[in-house]
């Protein structure tokens, strides 16, 4: 009754003043908390409600670079109510790579609702469950025949890609000489399709037909693969792409918006439905393969794709390579839900990363003809009388490997990784309380002038025939961040390096690739990763 009376007495002006009072109290509290924070660091002033969102929204990579220049190797911003401590110097990050610093994120109710947090490997911050999943994931990639199979499949898929490029080049009517054609195309689209296809083969033993699908959009004649297979593959890839978007959406959009604001809520429901459809598809693949394996007589030699390894690991069908023990403990075999998580992470972790890497590599090779010449000599010397390369051949490609490292130094694939402290720790000479969130700025570390002379110069020779012991810049093992570090280092790094070497050698063995416009900057979207949106190139056959 009394409340109703007060409501009736109050005028619009009173409400307005009341609102101003609440707003002013919030702003006062916000800045009071900000100005009295422990270990204050330099950084752009955050705004109430949005923190520094307005600063980072345009390009995260450039923003981190600007921060380092203006505020130094350790600085801070505020996002999503959290202080982000940004570190850009190799020796500052060393402590964060220890096994104590294992967590990636603070608890996120959005990721829990989406089913990403606490499951699988990348989104799992529960040590016991992460360790279990990570052991199986890594072991599947370590089965000796796994890499040989990956190499064979990549070689085979590249043959198909080669056929598509030739076919499109010859279809081009301006190419009068059909053996000396030129194809103007988007390299990034082809390579994203290629890595999609190859990860699918390596992970599940089945194809997504992504390169055939892209070929069909460019060509007047269709690929030999049946339309239904290509369409099914396309749908599957879309489910995966939407699922990755869903993870980001549920990470940044708060529960009130997701549950009560209509347009945002519809988007949330769309991602949840997409997730369920994707899970259904993966569960079907797992069940089908489980049944095939069950029906195989004991001792049958099996495929070495990830799905098969995960199903048989620690079961009676396991070979010596598929037994996972830690100390005296033998882990229980994986259930379907856990296998699904691992497959999904192979798709999510291994597709765009590898595709973007090869785009940057080719971009730098196009810009530096002397590097290209030296690389081609190495490739030709290894290929001299072979049609396919083996893992032994790949290990001899030292200059190609140096190009991969130097490209990743110049433009890292991931912009940053995070570490979230669960206990007090010392970083950059200061003590930090539990609950501090650190961001390791890859570009800042990889071009720090203290360890990299002339960091802005592209020079693969830094890594070529270098004796690590004598080399100052390689003394600190975290002066080059490509795959992260510590216990959470990328488990797919060996596979990724192998894929990149194979792609480089296969492309330059058969083709010349030039940028259509050497002066045009690359079209990149820089969020957690630096994604190449488009890279127009001219491809032509190599005439020896
Ligand atoms: C050029 C290619 C790749 C790059 C640049 C890359 C980069 C990274 C980085 C920076 C991390 C975070 C590491 C950390 O926090 O310290 C990571 C984690 C991860 N990557 Fe990769 N990656 C690549 C390829 C792959 C491939 C091919 C796979 C799988 C087949 C894969 C699967 C994963 C998984 C599952 C994690 C999470 C590991 C964990 O949390 O324990 N990645 N990767």
TrEMBL record:
| Molecular function terms, GO-annotated | heme binding; iron ion binding; monooxygenase activity; oxidoreductase activity, acting on paired donors, with incorporation or reduction of molecular oxygen
Q: What is this protein called?
A: Cytochrome P450
Membrane spanning segments where? 12-31
Q: Does the keyword Heme apply?
A: yes
Question: PROSITE patterns annotated for this entry?
Answer: CYTOCHROME_P450
Q: Which Pfam families match?
A: p450
What does the entry list as the binding residues for heme?
A: 490
Q: Which UniProt keywords apply?
A: Heme, Iron, Membrane, Metal-binding, Monooxygenase, Oxidoreductase, Transmembrane, Transmembrane helix
- Which metal ions or organic cofactors does this protein require, according to UniProt? heme
């Amino acid at each position: 009754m009394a409340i109703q009376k007060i409501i009736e007495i109050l005028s619009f002006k009173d409400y307005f003043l009341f609102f101003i009072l609440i707003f002013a109290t919030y702003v006062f509290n916000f800045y009071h908390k900000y100005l009295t924070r422990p270990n204050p660091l330099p950084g752009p002033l955050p705004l109430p409600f949005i923190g520094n969102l307005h600063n980072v929204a345009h390009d995260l990579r450039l923003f981190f670079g600007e921060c380092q220049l203006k505020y130094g190797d350790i600085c801070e911003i505020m996002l999503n109510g959290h202080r982000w401590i940004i570190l850009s110097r190799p020796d500052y990050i060393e402590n964060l790579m220890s096994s104590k610093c294992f967590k990636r994120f603070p608890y996120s109710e959005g990721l829990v609702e989406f089913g990403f947090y606490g499951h699988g490997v990348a989104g799992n911050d529960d040590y016991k469950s992460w360790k279990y999943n990570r052991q199986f994931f890594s072991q599947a990639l370590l089965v000796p025949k796994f890499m040989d199979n990956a190499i064979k499949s990549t070689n085979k898929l590249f043959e198909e890609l080669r056929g598509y490029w030739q076919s499109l080049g010859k279809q081009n009517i301006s190419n009068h000489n059909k053996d000396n054609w030129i194809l103007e195309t988007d390299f990034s689209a082809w390579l994203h399709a290629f890595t999609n296809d190859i990860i699918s083969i390596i992970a599940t033993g089945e194809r997504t037909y992504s390169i055939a699908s892209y070929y069909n959009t460019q060509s007047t004649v269709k690929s030999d693969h049946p339309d239904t297979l290509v369409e099914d593959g396309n749908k599957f890839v879309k489910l995966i792409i939407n699922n990755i978007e869903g993870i980001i959406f549920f990470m940044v959009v708060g529960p009130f918006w997701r549950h009560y604001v209509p347009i945002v809520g519809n988007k949330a429901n769309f991602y949840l439905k997409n997730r369920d459809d994707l899970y259904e598809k993966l569960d079907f693949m797992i069940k089908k393969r489980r049944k095939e394996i069950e029906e195989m007589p004991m001792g049958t030699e099996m495929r070495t794709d990830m799905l098969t390894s995960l199903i048989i690991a620690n079961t009676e069908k396991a070979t010596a390579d598929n037994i996972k023990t830690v100390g005296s403990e033998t882990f229980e075999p994986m259930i379907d839900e856990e296998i699904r998580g691992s497959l999904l992470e192979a798709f999510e972790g291994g597709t765009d990363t590898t595709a973007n890497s090869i785009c940057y590599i080719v971009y730098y090779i196009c810009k530096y003809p002397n590097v290209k010449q030296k690389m081609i000599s190495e490739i030709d010397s290894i290929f001299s009388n072979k049609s396919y390369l083996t893992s032994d051949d790949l290990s001899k490609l030292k200059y190609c490997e140096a190009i991969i490292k130097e490209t990743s130094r110049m433009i890292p694939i991931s912009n940053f990784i995070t570490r979230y402290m669960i206990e007090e720790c010392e970083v950059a000479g200061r003590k930090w309380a539990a609950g501090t969130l650190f961001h390791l700025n890859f570009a800042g570390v990889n071009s720090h002038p203290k360890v990299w002379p002339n960091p802005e110069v592209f020079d693969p020779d830094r890594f070529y025939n270098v004796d690590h012991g004598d080399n100052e810049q390689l003394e600190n093992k975290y002066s080059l961040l490509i795959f992260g570090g510590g216990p959470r280092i990328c488990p797919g790094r060996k596979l990724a390096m192998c894929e990149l070497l194979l792609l480089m050698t296969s492309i330059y063995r058969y083709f010349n690739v030039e940028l259509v416009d050497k002066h045009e900057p690359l079209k990149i979207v820089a969020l957690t990763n630096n994604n190449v949106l488009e890279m127009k190139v001219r491809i032509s056959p190599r005439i020896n």
